[in-house]
Design a protein that fits this description.
- The chain is of the alpha+beta class.
- The chain has two domains: 260 residues, Jelly Rolls (Sandwich); 73 residues, no CATH class.
- 30% of the residues lie in helices and 21% in strands.
- It contains twelve helices and 14 strands.
- The strands form two sheets. An eight-stranded antiparallel sheet has the order 2-12-9-14-7-6-3-5. The chain has a six-stranded mixed sheet with strand order 1-11-10-13-8-4, with no helix packed on it.
- The protein is globular, with a radius of gyration of 22 Å.
- It starts with 7 loop residues before the first helix and ends with a helix.
- The relative contact order is 0.16.
- Pfam families: Cupin_8.
- This is Cupin.
- InterPro entries: Cupin_8, JmjC_dom, RmlC-like_jellyroll.
- It comes from Sphingopyxis bauzanensis.
Amino acid sequence: MAVAEQGSSFTDRLACVPEREWNEGAGIDALLDGAREPFVLRGLVADWPLVAAGTRGGRAARRYLLDHARERPFKVSIGPPGHDGRLFYDSEMEMNFRIGTGKLADIFAGIDTAEELGENRTVYLASIDIPSHFDGLEEANSIELGDREPLQSIWIGTRTKIAAHNDFPDNLACCAAGRRRFTLFPPSAFRNLYLGPIDNTPAGRVVSMVDFDAPDLAAHPRYANAMAEALTVELEPGDAIFIPSMWWHHVEGLADFNILVNYWWRRTPAWLGQPQAALNHAILAIRDLPAEDKAIWREQFDHYVFDNDGRVTDHIPETARSILAPLTSETAGRLRAFLLRALSK
């Protein structure tokens, strides 16, 4: 039995992402510090020149970006004729779009032509690093994030639907042109989202296999539990949303042309490594062991990683605890080198 409501009527039944007030003089550092719940900041980047260009239309926004674009290839995802904008798997679990590279001017010329002909084409430039692909764009359209040193990316495209996924860094996403709909789920909802393969993904992160436009509760009955705790919001140009680390988010570009700028940062030093890599290694080394062996390793993980209390190190001289002590960049580097050697055997 599929859910009767589809499209926007489905999201209309969900709770809204809370909105927070912000003080232009004080910035938003205090709101972001320690935040573990999502919230929306209306009009946060309304004064950006990019936002102003977008209000004049898609072509004006594209011209503005071209004025700052570097002469280098841009990676682009393109759907076949008749593509509905959902960048996902096909019936054979291959991607339902192709990936290519080209000059930004040529990619935008294709969008111009499609608009002139009234054609619906799916064109999506995802997670383009701004400093390496544009000159002056970051400086002209900036935001004060305190002492954070974020990665800054831009997402450009036609009407698109990006399956629910999560990211390890915190994320401040700013709608610069068009409109975006976000549907969010807390980290604990992963069991109810029917996640797909880890190593075969549309964009590097595992995604929900549920079609959010027409959820099929016969095939995905636990998704009803996910819907019960979902949050949704539509962003207009100038609005921003904070998505905390590991929150699942489904993202739709609702206008004919859309631009999103986002900032990613970690709460912990980058030299600590990526938790996803540890999960992948655990699948390789532990998941397929006999049940009794897995139980032993579960206890060891609890002891060394998840509980990690004084019982681990109190009996060892402080100067001899090595990687059992809180990691530093030096000890993390030694551990990484050890892992690389072990994985290469």
